[in-house]
Each structure stands twice: as C-alpha cells, then as structure tokens.
Amino acid sequence: MPRSPMAPPRSFLWSRRVFLTLLTGFVLLPVYVMVSSSLKPLQDVSGKFRWWPSGLTIRPYIDIWSTVPLAKYFMNSLIVAGAATVCSVVIAVFAGYAVSRYDFPGKRVFTVTVLSTQMFPGILFLLPLFLLYVNIGNATGIALFGSRGGLILTYLTFSLPFSIWMLIGYFDSVPRDLDEAALVDGCGPLGALLRVVVPAAIPGIVAVAVYAFMTAWGEVLFASVMTNDTTRTLAIGLQGYSTQNEVYWNQIMAASLVVSVPVVAGFLLLQRYLVTGLTAGAVK
Amino acid sequence: MTTTATVEARGRTASTRSPGAARGPRRTGRIRRIGLPYLLLLPALLLELLVHLVPMAIGIVMSFKELTQFYIRDWGTAPWSGIDNYRMSVDFNAPVGDALLHSFLVTCGFTLLSVALCWLIGTAAALYMQDTFRGRGLLRALFLVPYALPVYAAVVTWAFMFQHDNGLVNHVLHDQLHLTDEPSFWLIGGNSFVALLTVSVWKGWPFAFLIVMAGLQNIPKDLYEAAALDGAGLWQQIRRITLPSLRPVNQVLVLVLFLWTFNDFNTPYVLFGRAAPQAADLISIHIYQASFVTWNFGTGSAMSVLLLLFLLVVTGAYLALTSRGRRRADA
C-alpha cells in the first residue's frame, strides 16, 4: 500500500536499512544456534561454543526418538492441542455470534467477566483447579486429573477470552444484510450463522484457531502439574534430555527444531489470514 | 447496541413476509428468541465457570486456611486461619513478606522495561515495513518466527546460548571480543535479569509488530494523501497522522502486553528451572515456589489473591484513564 505519493526521504531509507538489519540479526541468532547445534556431534556442544560444527552429523535427529519417548509426547501434544483448538473455536464462534448479533440482559457482564479472566495469573487457579479435578474424579469417576481430557478442558479456556473478543469484532464487521438475506430465505438464526456469517469470517476464525493451537502447544505450567508419564506433552517431555551427568544439547536443539516445525510452518502459511483477521477483528 | 435490536426487528418483519413463510410457518416463539443467545453462550459460560471462576473462588477460600500437605487430600477439613496468610505475606520485616516484596518489585521493573522495548521495536518495525520494498514479505514472515516458536523450544535455545562454559554469549563477549576478563554467569546472580529481559523482548516484540501492522491497515489512505498535499513529509505524516491514529490500538496492546509479561511463568521456568535467581524472581515463579516447593498452599493462595487485587486495580485505573482520554478526544 503506497502511503504517500512521494518517495520516502533519504533519512528514512537509511535508518530503515540499519534498523531492519540489526533486528534480523537479533531474530535469527537463536534460530541459527538451534539449527547448527542440532547438526553437531556431542563434543562440539559440550566444549567451547563453535560457530561451525567440526563435522556435520544427523545423529542427534536419530537419537532424539530413543533418548526419550518423543513420539509419544508428540502424539499427546497433537491430540491435546488439536482437540482444544477445535472445541475452543466452535465455542468462541457461538459466543461471539450471540454477543455480536443479539441484545440480551447480562451481555455486558458476560463480556467483561470473560475478558477479565485473561488477567488472572495461571498460578492463581492452578492448585484449586487441580483439587477440583481430583474431587470431581473422586465423586463421579471421570478422570480429569492426569488425563488428556482434563488438559484439553483447561487449555481450551485459555484461548477463549481472546478468541471471543476477536470474533465479536470480526462478526461486527460482517454486514448484517447478509444474515438478514439468509433469514429472508428461510434460514433459522443458526443456519444464518453457519451458512453465511462463518464463511464470511473465515480469516478471523483461522486467526483464532492458530492462536488457540499455539497457546496449547506451548503451555508449560499446567502441563507440569496435570500430566503423568503416559499423558506427558512435549513442553515437559523435552526436559528429559538433561540427565545427571550429561546434558545432550545437540539433541535438545534437534528436538526443539522438530517440535517447532509444525507450528512455525502452519503459522507462516496462515500469517496472511492472521493479519487480515486481526485487522477486521481485534484492532478496531 | 440499538442497531442490533432494529436489525432483529427488521429481520423478523422481513421473514414474516418472506417466501420461506410459504413453506409453512417457522416456529419462532418468544421463548426461543430470547433464549437463543443464552443457549449460544452456555458452553463458554460453563467452561469459564469450571476452569476460571469456581477455582478462583476455591483459591480465595483456601487463602483463609492453614493448608499444608497434611490437608491437601481433603482440603475442606483444613483449619481456618483467618487472615494469618495475608498477614504473613505483607509482613515485610519477616523473610516471607520481604521475599515477596522483592519479587514484586523485580516483576514491576522487568515488566515496565520489557513492555516498553517490545512496543518500541514492534512499532518501529511496523512503520518501517508499511511501504512495500524488495524482500518485505520474507522479512515479515521471518519476524513472526519468535512469536510462532513454542515457548520452551525458543527459551531452551536461549538457555543454551547463556551457558557459562559452552554458550554462545560468553564465547562472543569473552573469547572473541575480550570485553570481559572472565566468562560471566548469566543464569544465576545479577546478570540473570538481563538474560530474562533479552529473552522476553525477543519473544514478545513480534506480537506488538503484528498488532500495530494490523492497526496501520485501518488508517484511511486519504488522510495521508491530504497531508501530502499540504506538504507534510514522511516523518511528519508518521508523527501527525500514523501515531495519533494508532492510539486506540496501542491502548489495548500495551494492556495485553503488560498482563502477559507480568504473569509470565513459562519463560523464567524454562530458563532457570524451578527456582529463579533472586534478581529475576518473577512473581509467578515466586508463588509457585511458595506453594509447591515449600508445600504451603494457604500462603501461596493468599499471595495469588493479593496479586489478583493488584492487577484488578491497575487494569481498572488504566481503563478509566484511557477511556477518559478517549472521551476528551471525542469532545
């Protein structure tokens, strides 16, 4: 988008070059360390730091799967983050639509309450939630503590406030004539939502889904308390590469890269949607 | 939200005259019309209750109890201790209160610096990348990588870089540039604050960049064109048009950054492990320590409640101030 019809002044161009070069260096440094260290033999990462491996090797990528049960953690993370994302998006779409299209008593209270949970420090309800899950488990036999279900339930609420807030903004920007037309054609309110409003709001919904997935994929605090050996997620499982006598830095870097690839690739593929979604939704 | 009501009314009158009505009358009873929004909100509400609101209420009850590991199995039976937990938390002459105050001050300083730097870098990057130039798309994707990386993968890489014997940072500062006489310790002692701040800014600025970039797209182009006609240069356009137009976006952005940074647990936990060094003892880690490592859940809950009160007051004051400013700007 050209901002002004004239060419930018020299000072702007020059400072832009300096700033963006420095920033690129800052951003790429850890990425370079991650990639290069994951291709080094163990003595390279245990001794003085080297910019270049003494001999390139892909052994770390083979060893990571046997040092810890990485594949199992991967599956757990995938199941938990995937399920949490799907549920969170569906629930946020319904709630966002209700707030955007209807007037009802208690609407303001609902919006403020949901949004204010965003400011609770996780530590505040970590222990009570843990106790609540244990109590529910004892009372009903539904195992929430230590199970994937409990983690899914927890994670999907983490992204709800932001998702609902963003979708309210997004649905507000979808012209109401569209739903009206659908109602005229004999759709019920839900039909109008699913057939007209949701398709029109796809960028916003994608943005919300990406956010929900990333939140669940990277969460550490609740995963550290609420998982056991069989349900452990990547966030906790990666700690298994540090043993009493040796820290396998090359394997840690390789594993970090492997667990990052799906998220980063997905994020970069969908980033256009993300900016569009934010533009119409949250940033108004 | 009067528009909603009118649209609804119009939608209803339209639907009664609609060709769809010929296919038999639709059951749009009054109950259903009023009940529908509540029905749509029900799942969100139930989950918020289960995961946020009920646990928070339990947390508040727990903070008035003497809750040690002996009572954890059946926490309802733990003896009441009145406001002892709170008294202990704010007794700044005793070790517990003193450590909490220290942690609180460290967190405030850390949050201020981190939010300011994230906002500055993110805004500058977004402004520099507003116009197209060669490689802009690639850079934009690259700049979002720190935000997209899972927290533990990114932070564990930084932890490796900050290692005393085999880290990149000491190698560059000590072996290559000879800036330090001795290799420094980064993850213990006074330097840990700098290490934590670096990681936090590296991880956090792309979010500011993303939001400001989105905000820039909502500024009408004709504002710039009018300014250009009036002879305003690019720097002036940024100062007179871009930054003022971004104010509402920035108000929300700064608040979100503040809350995320203040409550950050993941970064220090992955960087330092279960016990953060004193200089980087963020409040979330501190309360985690107080609860899970010393098994004193009552005191931990009291600290959490105090923290929540602080956040409520700050957020409330912030919202009041910014909305008043906005009203004055509108008037």
From TrEMBL, chain A:
Bilayer topology: Multi-pass membrane protein
Keywords: Cell membrane, Membrane, Transmembrane, Transmembrane helix, Transport
Positions of transmembrane segments: 73-97, 109-132, 152-171, 192-214, 248-270
Subcellular location: Cell membrane
Any matching Pfam family: BPD_transp_1
Gene3D superfamilies in alphabetical order: MetI-like
Coiled-coil boundaries: none
ABC transmembrane type-1 domain location: 74-270
Top-level lineage group: Bacteria
Family under the similarity heading: Belongs to the binding-protein-dependent transport system permease family.
Protein name: Carbohydrate ABC transporter permease
From TrEMBL, chain B:
Main localization category: membrane
Keywords, ordered alphabetically: Cell membrane, Membrane, Transmembrane, Transmembrane helix, Transport
PROSITE patterns, A to Z: ABC_TM1
Subcellular location field: Cell membrane
Membrane protein topology class: Multi-pass membrane protein
Region annotated Disordered, chain positions: 1-26
InterPro entries according to UniProt: ABC_transporter_permease (IPR051393), MetI-like (IPR000515), MetI-like_sf (IPR035906)
CDD domains, per the entry: TM_PBP2
Residue ranges crossing the lipid bilayer per the database entry: 36-64, 104-129, 141-161, 193-216, 245-262, 301-321
Span of domain ABC transmembrane type-1: 104-318
Record-stated family: Belongs to the binding-protein-dependent transport system permease family.
The protein, known as: Carbohydrate ABC transporter permease
Taxonomic source organism: Streptomyces yaanensis
Top-level taxonomy: Bacteria, Bacillati, Actinomycetota, Actinomycetes, Kitasatosporales
